[in-house]
Structures are given as C-alpha cells and as structure tokens.
C-alpha cells in the first residue's frame, strides 16, 4: 500500500477513535472503584515482607545520601 493510502487509512482510524463515545456504565464503574479488591494489596505485601531487606544496597547514590542525612 502506498504512503498516501496508508496515511488516509490512519487518518480515518484516528478520526473514528477521536469521535467515538461509548455509553459509559457509571454504576459499574462505581462498583469497581469502591470494591474491596484494593485491600488485597496489603495481603500481597505481607506475603513478601519476609523477603524485604532494610539494606539500602539497591538505592541510587543520591537516595542513599538523603536517607543518611
């Protein structure tokens, strides 16, 4: 496909995406945002707590200096 046809196709797709407005289910969005799934992250973090190391070996030089100060 030539560059002109390719550009025209991309322009058409971009225009369709720009003006496409799907119906939003705000009730489903609210349920998703207020669900208790975000509480599971603390459980996930506690699983790996034993592997956490207080050593600053992996910090960059500036970050190490800031913590020491």
From TrEMBL:
<feature type="compositionally biased region" description="Basic and acidic residues">
    <location>
        <begin position="34"/>
        <end position="47"/>
    </location>
</feature>
<protein>
    <submittedName>
        <fullName>DUF3073 domain-containing protein</fullName>
    </submittedName>
</protein>
<dbReference type="InterPro" id="IPR021426">
    <property type="entry name" value="DUF3073"/>
</dbReference>
<dbReference type="Pfam" id="PF11273">
    <property type="entry name" value="DUF3073"/>
</dbReference>
<feature type="region of interest" description="Disordered">
    <location>
        <begin position="34"/>
        <end position="69"/>
    </location>
</feature>
């Amino acid at each position: 496909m030539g560059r002109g046809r390719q550009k025209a196709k991309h322009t058409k797709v971009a225009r369709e995406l720009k003006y496409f407005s799907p119906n939003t289910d705000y009730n489903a969005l609210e349920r998703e945002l207020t669900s208790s799934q975000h509480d599971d992250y603390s459980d996930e973090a506690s699983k790996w707590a034993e592997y956490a190391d207080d050593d600053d070996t992996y910090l960059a030089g500036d970050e190490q200096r800031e913590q020491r100060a």
